[in-house]
Amino acid sequence: MSKNEKNVESITNRDVDFARWYTDVVKKAELVDYSSVRGCVILRPYGYAIWENIQRSLDDKLKETGHENVYLPMFIPESLLEKEKDHVEGFAPEVAWVTHGGAEKLAERLCVRPTSETLFCEHYANVIQSHRDLPKLYNQWCSVVRWEKTTRPFLRTVEFLWQEGHTAHATAEEAVDETLRILDIYASLMEDMMAIPVIKGQKTEKEKFAGAQATYTMEALMHDGKSLQAGTTHYFGDGFAKAFGIQFSDKNNQLTHVHQSSWGVSTRMIGGIIMAHGDDNGLVMPPRIAPIQVMIIPIAQHKEGVLDKAREIMAGLKKNVRIKLDDSDKSPGWKFSEHEMKGIPIRLEIGPKDIESNQAVLARRDTGEKKAVSLDNIETELMSLLEDIHKNMYQRALAHREATTSYAKNMEEFEKALEEKPGFIKAMWCGERACEEAIKDRTTATSRCIPFEQESFSDTCVCCEKPAKHMVYWGKAY
Question: Which CATH architecture has domain 18-277?
């Protein structure tokens, strides 16, 4: 098979049509299939396995920090949703309503859960009475429904899977600490598990979550220069508590309201993996999150001893490595392309000549490099290679972000950067919503976050030239 020959159906070049490339990958790597319901997808086994690994990793981190899993109903009465005015206004355009039960019209419409703040608040009002009941550190894994007009698998679908944490605390300080602690956990998940560097910061007032006092975000840059809001955490203060009557007796026996946080990440993270790491041959999976880390491809498997040796290798490795053997009757070239499409980090080739030499050939998905290694220390070589692949993928994504991040001191520089080098733009901002909206109207770029790590390279706002208050990351986004 020649270097450029593919035994699986080719995919669109990502630099020619990124949106089409993305759709090709999610379909041909067998991550999803489309359902008969507009905007809803079927997560196929390989796609769901990626989510399971994300879920398992995050769930462990949350439990280590004292959080407990619960499950609340998927239906919310309209009267309950309307208790917090800003919250309901923020979600109203995306809400799906149940109006009938069987043939009977319901006395009150039921909202299909777009998020669960109101249900958690109702529950907390019932179970929190004393400071001894706090903090409440609850999380739930579930699906939510938002009636999106434009959809794309993983990035924006009508129904999607996520986790949503909802916590209640005795003081504002504790709630803020929780909000920032979870943001750090999310960032660790992205960087340490998915090899995607993120920028942490606070959303502007315009971009914050409906009903929150403050929203914090982690922003990741995709290959096409667009930003992905990969996860957010929200500090609610006591606004929801006052709306829902969540009060407790403090240590001085005084009745006071709790302070709350809310936070969530979703299957959108899988879209981030695809767009940050994928190439023209398909997925490139980060090893720590990959459902299959190593795929064994037997060469000339019809010859005596080849399959036996392949199975022996798999048996010796499967305790510490997620490994599979492809012993199907497809040609090796076809198998190479098929597993390359799925982004499996390492391909292990073993054939008669390799067996004679007591070796196997390891091929990296991220760089395409191949090397022969002794079977005597195959596990050590694989573990080292998986670690190196993770580091290389992270550094490559970081280098891409740095190379496509620009500075702008005025709108002319801003627009030039947006046109010539799609990516993040660092620009100073006065803090006024009018300027933020003017930038969006003029360029379609939005404020991504006010980063915790601030820089000052100009005294004036990029838009109005009034005194600047913050350095902001701007960009086009998914």
Answer: 2-Layer Sandwich (3.30)
